[in-house]
Write a structure and sequence with these properties.
single chain; 151 residues; alpha+beta; Arc Repressor Mutant, subunit A; Homing Intron 3 (I-Ppo) Encoded Endonuclease, Chain A; two-stranded antiparallel ribbon; two-stranded antiparallel sheet; 7 helices; 38% helix; disordered C terminus; binds zinc ion
Length: 151
Amino acid sequence: MRKHEEAVRLYGNGSTQRDIAKRFGVSQSTIGLWLAKAGVVARRNGPSPRSLADRFWEKVEFKPGDCWRWLASGNVLGYGKILSEGGAANGRWLKAHRVSYELENGPIPNGLVIDHACREPSCVNPAHLEAVTQSENCKRGLTGEHGNRWP
Ligand SMILES: [Zn+2]
C-alpha cells in the first residue's frame, strides 16, 4: 500500500495527524497535504482550533506540474491570504504563498522575500516559490527573467 493511502486509512481509523507524521518520519503539515490531496476533510479534534496547515491545504486547487490556485480570499494584488492561528480575534492576515513556502521548507530566512517563478500571484505551489533578496526580486520583475507563465 502506498504511504499516502496508508496515511488516509490510519486517519480514518482515528489516528491523529501527529501520530501518522511520526510513523512516516515526515512533518505534520506533510500529512495534512496528503489528506487534502486525497480529498479527506480534516476533522476537528475536540474544542481546539484546526491547525494552519489543515485550513491552508483545503483552500488549494492541486494541479500536478502546474500552478496551485488559491481558492479562498485574496488581496487586491491577487495574492491569497489566510488568517493566522488565533482566529479573527487574535490572528493576523498572512500571505498564502509565504505560508505555503514555510509549510514546505520551514521559516523564511530573515530579509528574504518569496518570488513566484511562475509570475502567478495566486499560485501557492511550493515548487514555484523561491526565497530571494528584495533586490533580486525587483531585478527579476524588471528583466522579465520569469516573464512567461510556468514552466
Ligand atoms: Zn505557479
